[in-house]
Amino acid sequence: MTAVGPFILSVQHAGTAREMIDRGFGQATPCAKGHSAAFVFTDLEQLYVGVSQAYRLSMSLPTLPLERFHTETSGLGETEAEAVTRVRIGQNIFRDALMEYWNGACPLTGITDRGLLRASHIIPWAECTSDAQRLDVHNGLLLSSLWDAAFDAGLISFGDDGKPIASPALSDVAAEELSIFTAPPLALTPAHRENLTWHRLHRWIAA
């Protein structure tokens, strides 16, 4: 017998619920006690997409990456070598979290080749004020290597609408290779926008 909808997915994690609403999964409906939101799906295919999205977000949103970082670095001391190890562990965790959050693809190009994807900090690791900020997926973008290089160099940034902003220092050839004027806008949260404001002020080359 084929299951017949509608189907309801109840989400406990408040951050996951907010992200799903922002990503167009619909307005939250009345849900179970202790849960943050519920979403209605008309068929099993839509339900599968919703469950997959909820899982990826719950695995990447704060505070799971930070908890994993604390667990994996709990035995490290304060030597220079251990500090390098701590950074490497943190960056690997951050990359894993961004891969989950962005569904393993650069949102601008659609590239899914892991070797061509970079975990791009918006506020750089060294300039973050806490491990929580360093490992927050809202302080990062999963970009293909060329986009990552341009973003890190301040040759591009992103507006509050998610659209790329080209620096005057970006060459016409680079802009064409990036397809910067036809790239789709990023799906941003308020936390992304706050961090990108910092990037436009401190990293983007205005002239």
Summary, kept brief:
The chain is 43% helix and 13% strand. The protein is α+β, with helices and mostly antiparallel strands and 207 residues long.
Description:
With 207 residues, this protein is of the alpha+beta class. Helix content is 43%, strand content 13%. It has 8 helices and 6 strands; from the N terminus they run E-H-E-H-H-H-E-H-E-H-E-E-H-H. The strands form 3 sheets. It has a two-stranded antiparallel ribbon. The protein has a two-stranded antiparallel ribbon with strand order 3-4. Strand 5 and strand 6 form a beta hairpin. Helix 1 packs across helix 2 and helix 3 runs antiparallel to helix 4. It starts with 6 loop residues before the first strand and ends in a 5-residue tail after the last helix. The model has no long low-confidence stretch (mean pLDDT 90).
Q: Low-confidence parts, pLDDT < 50 over ≥5 residues?
A: none
Number of strands: 6
The largest beta-sheet arranges its strands as: 1-2
The N- to C-terminal Cα distance equals 64 Å
Structural class: alpha+beta
User: What percent of residues are in strands?
Assistant: 5-15%
N to C succession of SSEs: EHEHHHEHEHEEHH
Note the overall shape. globular
Detail the topology: elements first, then pairings:
Elements: E1 7-11, H1 14-22, E2 37-41, H2 44-60, H3 64-73, H4 80-101, E3 117-121, H5 131-134, E4 140-144, H6 145-152, E5 156-158, E6 164-166, H7 172-178, H8 190-202
Antiparallel strand pairs: 1-2, 3-4, 5-6
Tags for this entry?
single chain; 207 residues; 8 helices; globular
